Amino acid sequence: MTFYFTGIRSFPKLWKSNPYLGLGPGHSSLSLFLKDCYGIKNQEKWFSLKTVSPQNTKAMNLLVAKARYVRKKDEGSSKQVSADSPHMFAAGAAKKRSQMNPPSKEHVLPPVKNIFQLPTKPLNSEEWDKLKEDFKEKANFENWIISQMIKCHSSVDVAKSVLAWVAAKNNGIVGYDLLVRYLYLCVFHKQTSEIIDVYEIMKARYKRLESGAYTLLIRGLIHTDRWREALLLLEDIKKVMIPSKKNYNDCIQGALFHQDVNVAWNLYQELLGHDIVPMLETLKAFFDFGKDMKGDQYSNKLQDILLYLRNNQLYPGESFAHSIKTWFESVPGEHWKGQFTTVQQSGQCLGCGKTVESIHLSSEEYEFLKEKIMRDVIDGGDQYKKTTPQ
């Protein structure tokens, strides 16, 4: 997918996404048996309806007749199988024995256990006690039930009743793992007040959190009035490790949501300084915010992002491409007009006629890259020192 812009100045920006590679029809086979064995999905049900052929029935009757043919030389002597019957260790004997002794119809599979139905409304302590009694085999019922609620995206109120039940049994204390699981549900359902309550509990009880809890708290706080506290949590992460691109993405989007462009841009530069490739939705957020911005200063920032995409061969998806197109068309006084088009195999755009620059390296670029790898990677000094935490 490609789009181009035309306006009072020549400033074409082209992106090309990989075309969808559709799969052709599967190769047909000469043998119906081979198709069944290879498990072609659209024919499995058809094969399951086929009845046993008469030839197979005949063979089965013959084997049963052989099995019934038994000689008795004396009374009390052991029974001997007919001489025509194969030795018990002969090739194919096991298969024939299984055909001669079909499984009894009385042998049925054990019934499948009923699927556990999660509560759809908050339960009181007595109801949770009874439910726990029904699931004695669960080593840690409280964490297990919350995990099931996470999988099914249950209501926060139901999960909160679990915490109230646990707190009542433990002098008002809820374990760390249970709090983090509950926090996940609160963030998923965007329950701001509950997120802040959990944040206050964790802040008072724990000096340090693990990365998953930090990530959830940052994501939960960015759209609240206390979004700057998410930046403090980001600083806590920096004390022990480099924050992830998701952490930076959440903080940048929170800053843009609250109209603080400088904080967002500084975080973006910090992200690049760690040699971390930003998420495309992070870059998209800058363009979405820029639709209502006037002035060259912010426009220059967005052009820097476009150059970053070009230099690192990052190709935006359709949603991101729409954001870029909308921003160009919103620039006052420029009269940009964008439209989606395609690029020929030769690299020529069908819309503007320009040729997309090649991604193949020139001889000078190749030599530069080779020398850089030799210098920085192969002859780069003591590799052990580079990989230690210090």
What do you see in this structure?
It catalyses: Endonucleolytic cleavage of RNA, removing 5'-extranucleotides from tRNA precursor. InterPro entries: PRORP_C, TPR-like_helical_dom_sf. The protein is mainly α and 390 residues long. The protein has a domain at 125-364: Alpha Horseshoe (Serine Threonine Protein Phosphatase 5, Tetratricopeptide repeat), CATH 1.25.40.10. It is 54% helix and 4% strand. The protein contains 18 helices and four strands. The chain has a two-stranded antiparallel sheet with strand order 1-4. A two-stranded antiparallel ribbon has the order 2-3. Strand 2 and strand 3 (80-81) form a beta hairpin. The longest helix has 16 residues, at 296-311. The radius of gyration is 34 Å and the shape is extended. Residues 6-55 and 69-84 have low confidence and may be disordered.
Summarize the main sheet: 2 strands, antiparallel
Q: Roughly what is the average pLDDT, rounded to an integer?
A: 77
Secondary-structure content class: mainly alpha
Helix content: 40-55%
Could you tell me the CATH topology label of the domain at 125-364.
Answer: Serine Threonine Protein Phosphatase 5, Tetratricopeptide repeat
Superfamily (CATH H level) name of the domain at 125-364: Tetratricopeptide repeat domain
| Shape estimate | extended
Order of helices and strands: EHHHEEHHHHHHHHHHHHHEHH
Which CATH C-level class of the domain at 125-364 is it? Mainly Alpha
Number of helices: 18
Tell me the span between the first and last alpha carbons: 45 Å
* Number of DSSP E strands: 4
| Strand order across the largest sheet | 1-4
- Give the radius of gyration: 34 Å
Question: What share of residues are in beta strands?
Answer: under 5%
CATH architecture of the domain at 125-364: Alpha Horseshoe
Low-confidence residue ranges = 6-55, 69-84
